[in-house]
Design brief:
Distance between the termini: 30 Å
Structural class: mainly beta
Strand content: 35-45%
Largest sheet: 7 strands, antiparallel
Strand order of the largest sheet: 12-13-14-15-16-17-18
Number of strands: 34
Radius of gyration: 22 Å
Number of helices: 1
Length: about 450
């Protein structure tokens, strides 16, 4: 799954602001009794993180974009929680075996009361910290709430040392990515809106110490950030200069080094996406239909010349490298698989309503409002992972053979008033029934 993550205002320049608070749960140790420390970033899809024997997760989910959103109410169920997976789940003695799948396990611990269960949630581990996102709670200059902005936090595994790193604007064209730079250090790479139509690129070094945010480029029109499979750690982007001409540049988010690219004068170039070291872009050529092309960034050629045609369409999105090729969403919304020079194969038709989650061993996991399924890019075999009454489509995490997702409670009494979404899990291959993980109110 492509998780789209960061793209300002005096009130939200809050970098490395330490928040008060004491440890809320015990620390996490390895088998030798030493505190767990991660030298590299470990990511679990976004909604969960496995640290030692503990699963960290957003207990519940609330739509933060709703006009009725109430932060204080939402965090009552959507707080940061954890549970020890090395122990069998325990339930109250009066819970019958046929109701345990729909019952919250005992020994769920609250790590932080920050609200984390929402659409733009993402979490990962690095060093001695869990990094996560939350909705902005800073007031605007008119003393109003703006929950569309995203705040980046980190917290110790025991709930101590909660720190706000940065808060930014965020919309559908923004992206926050966590990448290892050319210097071997990890960075938040952020492209977020800084005006009505333009975007600003910045980076923040993370690790034992949090660096200051550095602005790398401004007035960006289209861009593609390196992913975890890229060897060249940069961001390719376009801007328009004073003469109205499009400029294509790349910036190393660790060193700040800028490279220039070129293209035929009569073309109009739009960067679409990136998978590894391949950039996908459209070239609007005179007297020709707009098509999608690709460029290999490891090639010394610096031209976006439209020589390598990839797909006949005016746009594609959510490109992922899978097996020997790539999956993407077409402009019509269909899920397509294609090698660089092979024929395109439609996996899912655009008349289906679905969200792509992620890829695993040649399977594309996707969700709807009632199901999570997976489809093979090789033979288009579809397998059901889980079916429930109402699922939050488009959000998930995965660890140790399980997929984690939010759903409304199943098998409720007709007079139940709990309409919240809570975290569930099911086996990745669909062989195990779902299990409620979140603690109900």
């Amino acid at each position: 799954m492509k998780k789209k993550f960061l793209k300002l205002f005096a009130l939200i320049f809050v970098v490395a602001l330490a928040l008060t608070g004491c440890a809320t749960v015990s620390n996490v140790y390895d088998e030798s009794g030493n505190p767990i420390y991660y030298d590299e970033v470990v990511h679990f899809g976004g909604q969960v993180a496995k640290i030692g024997n503990y699963l960290y997760y957003a207990n519940g989910y609330t739509d933060a974009s709703s006009d009725e959103f109430d932060y204080d109410k939402a965090k009552q169920s959507g707080y940061l929680a954890r549970i020890d997976l090395s122990k069998s789940f325990e339930f109250d003695e009066n819970i019958s075996s046929d109701l345990k799948n729909d019952t919250s396990p005992k020994n769920i611990e609250q790590v932080s009361d920050k609200f984390v269960g929402y659409k733009n949630q993402d979490m990962f581990v690095l060093g001695s910290y869990l990094y996560f996102t939350s909705t902005n709670t800073h007031k605007t200059s008119s003393l109003e709430n703006d929950y569309s902005r995203i705040s980046l936090f980190r917290v110790g595994f025991n709930g101590d040392n909660l720190t706000e790193i940065y808060t930014t604007r965020y919309d559908d064209k923004s992206e926050i990515s966590v990448q290892k730079g050319s210097d071997g250090q990890y960075y938040y790479v952020i492209c977020a809106q800084n005006s009505a139509e333009k975007y600003e690129l910045s980076s923040i070094k993370i690790g034992d110490e949090i660096g200051e945010r550095k602005v790398l480029a401004e007035n960006i029109e289209s861009y593609a950030i390196a992913d975890e499979k890229a060897h060249i750690k940069n961001v390719v982007y376009t801007t328009t200069n004073e003469d109205g001409k499009i400029e294509i540049k790349a910036v190393d988010f660790a060193s700040g080094e800028i490279s220039n690219f070129f293209y035929p004068e009569k073309y109009e170039i739009t960067i679409l996406d990136r998978a590894g070291d391949y950039i996908f872009y459209t070239a609007d050529k005179p007297n020709a239909d707009i098509e999608v092309f690709y460029k290999d960034l490891t090639n010394s050629d610096t031209n976006f010349d439209g020589a390598n045609r990839f797909y006949s369409a005016d746009s594609i999105s959510d490109v992922m490298s899978v097996e020997e090729g790539y999956t993407f969403l077409s402009s019509s919304g269909a899920l397509v698989y294609k090698t660089l020079n092979g024929n395109a194969k439609v996996l899912l038709e655009s008349d289906n309503t679905f969200d792509v989650l992620y890829e695993d061993n040649g399977w594309i996991y996707y969700s709807s409002s009632t199901e999570i399924n997976r489809i093979s890019v090789i033979d288009k075999t579809i397998e059901n992972v889980v079916t429930m009454t109402e699922i939050v489509s488009g959000t998930c995490g995965y660890s140790d053979g399980y997929i984690y997702f939010f759903a409304k409670l199943e098998n409720q009494q007709e007079d139940s008033t709990d309409k919240n979404y809570y975290l569930y899990r099911a086996s990745l291959d669909g062989t195990m029934n779902y299990q409620l993980i979140g603690k109900t109110i």
